[in-house]
Design a protein that fits this description.
Chains A, B: Keywords: Cytoplasm, Methyltransferase, rRNA processing, S-adenosyl-L-methionine, Transferase. Two copies of one chain form a homodimer. Chain A is an alpha/beta fold. Chain A contains eight helices and eleven strands. Chain A folds into two domains: 64 residues, Ribosomal Protein L25, Chain P, CATH 2.40.240; 169 residues, 3-Layer(aba) Sandwich (Alpha/beta knot).
Chain lengths: 246, 246
Amino acid sequence: MQHYFLNQPLAIDQVVAIPSLIKKHWLKVMRAVDGTKAEFVDDAQNVFIGELINSQIEPAIKIIESKPFNAELPFSITIACGVAKNDKADWMVRKATEMGVDRIIFFAGDWSIAKWQPNRVNKKLERLNTIALSAAEQSHRNRVPVVEYQAKLNTIVSADYDQKVVAYEESAKAGEESMLHQTVNQMQPNDSMVAVFGPEGGISPREIELLTDQQVQPVGLGPRILRTETAPLYLLAAISAFSELS
Amino acid sequence: MQHYFLNQPLAIDQVVAIPSLIKKHWLKVMRAVDGTKAEFVDDAQNVFIGELINSQIEPAIKIIESKPFNAELPFSITIACGVAKNDKADWMVRKATEMGVDRIIFFAGDWSIAKWQPNRVNKKLERLNTIALSAAEQSHRNRVPVVEYQAKLNTIVSADYDQKVVAYEESAKAGEESMLHQTVNQMQPNDSMVAVFGPEGGISPREIELLTDQQVQPVGLGPRILRTETAPLYLLAAISAFSELS
């Protein structure tokens, strides 16, 4: 069954106009006809089953029942990672959305190899947020992650989160293996975490000092060296394993 | 430091000829010069540091010290998944290698949407094994995963493994959440597991019967719907989290 986000309150028996993007996908690509059902998420993350009505004249959705379902991680996880080239950024946003991320913030690291030109940032974010929407539909999420850009790491890690961690290669090399598990065990439902991942060029000494000043906890992600775009997925899967499969 | 696999026994002070692929990458791409060091893995998964000597005349590697290091998962994990289109298969092999897989077997599922033509299988496997080698070098593994093809799922799941699991979407929908953790907890170091993932078209009733007959355990991978190529990575990260980070 298809799964779409409607940014409005919903109730049973309500008839809702179909936003044009959903109309295009559901009617044209998926060939929905009168009576075809789909899942619709309201603006408070509740899921409903709705069916297509009046498709020949003025297509609309009739909400027919509630479908209580929560596909969200118990915590709100923000991934902050150094800017990446187009295809890697696309890929990471898509997969992190499948794995339950709440927010992705790309930042310009001191040693970033990829650069985002200031006049291209909005265009890139628009593209990445479209990818996040489509991946959230496919993985039947209750909410759509937000993709943002911050010029400075400082602004990210000085914000208010319950837990702050950084995936630091030196921690992995030093055999640090238990801090992520310990951190997740301390978290309560709805707690927030920001997890920082350096860009491909690595994290600079200045940035490490900044992270240390902000009490950001270094965590190891196992003994294998993970690429910049793979490490956030490992972290999300590990948090899910510790909190949803244990 | 670069990391390469030499399929031979190694010992300190030994001088080794450089295989042509390594020569091309290390000398041409990475511009190694006399005295440049790299890691070399022998045929028994031991890691050594070696340096380049005699680069102007007849380049060779001199093994200078042992570097005891194990980046392997404590278990031997085989991923069996329905054949996928080129880019998804490439991507999955690369990322599963980073995450510690031991063997990847693609199979032609009853409901596979992608098909591998019989006369193209060898060419595809050659390409995928090259990707696995390169990813194993980058993630500093002790061994290179093997990528294979089997026409029948039956041949795969009737083979001898300590644990056999299948990621079955219906298990996830039914809220099954603890079997993977329980299974991993039962495993001893060096135990083997095969994990089956259906193709994009899903697993057929005939295949489910076959899996049930072979006592393959259905496991849920959390409440979000993961794409065919993402699910194996989630499983590998979860196994690493349960066994390496706990």
